[in-house]
Amino acid sequence: MSNKEAYITFCQSQPALPIFSQPWYLDAVCGAANWEVILIKRGSQIVASWPYYVKQKAFFTYITLPYLTKTMGPYLIPTFRHLKQEHKIFAELIAQLPKVDFFNQDFHASITNWLPFKWAGFQQTTNYSYVIDELQNLDQVFARFSTDYRNNKIKKAQQQVKVVTDRSLRELYDVSKMSFDRQDLSYLLSFDFLQQLDEALVKHKARKMFFAVDANGRIHAALYLIWDQHTSYYLIAGDDPALRQSGASILLVWEAIQFSSRTLGLAHFDFLGSMIPAIERVRRQFGAQQRAFFNLQKYYSPSFRLLESVKAFFSKSYY
Prior knowledge:
By secondary structure, the protein is α+β, with helices and mostly antiparallel strands. The protein folds into two domains: about 5-125 and about 295-315, Aminopeptidase (3-Layer(aba) Sandwich); about 135-265, Aminopeptidase. The protein has helices at about 5-10, 25-30, 85-95, 115-120, 140-145, 145-160, 170-180, 190-205, 250-260, 275-285, 300-315; strands spanning about 35-40, 45-55, 60-65, 75, 100-105, 125-130, 160-165, 205-215, 220-225, 230-240, 270, 290-300. Strand 2 (about 45-55) and strand 3 form a beta hairpin. Helix 2 (about 25-30) packs antiparallel against helix 8 (about 190-205) and helix 6 packs across helix 9.
């Protein structure tokens, strides 16, 4: 049995494994041939896994995150999540990484011990997501929204739009792209890529689209929600710049939270960031709390490091 085949079986026994590390999700975002996984066993039992995605550019290969994959990193079964075991297992995982020029992954928030990676020469940056917990009590969740959101923006939006879920993926993509066009930013997500991922999510019953539409049929805002067995994720969203004043995007978040609680029975709603000040303020107004996670990097190639430094000087991203 190959590592991937063993990993598929392993994932079926681990309900806490995030959606971004599920084999079918990785097939969709990486391509089935472009990702691999390291497994650690104790006897015949798999106790840890580490999927990774390898890209190549010119003469360089590097491990990074594929589009729309917010975290990867190691996963340990619950009984091995204590320091003595973590130190040993993380060291074993690191030793099995393939030879590449550069490594860059965001680890899931459940990984709180990065010491073995420091000892192995990795650099760490702490990033933050924003998460709403205890979705079972929606009254309390709503009470933690800012006064402006509770009493003004959501009520205003409800008077101008209705929330529907039957518009097309193409329409959602177009609305999400508007937010980037408004800021004169490149939109790296292609529709073909999103469609490929959407097909996998639909097959596994793990996504829902929300649209705020007015009486004239205009889409004010759209939101793309995905989920695993414990958390729903605010993966893609956008609004029409000409219609932003309706507050429709705020209303859609509230609808997605209610859906996550009432229909899915989940306890957590994850905004998946952001570190951008203006977006961070919006997340806090929903009463979301910071959740720290680690970004780990390591340069194995001095040439790659030099190239990155030159490109950063000219404000260009390598990938």
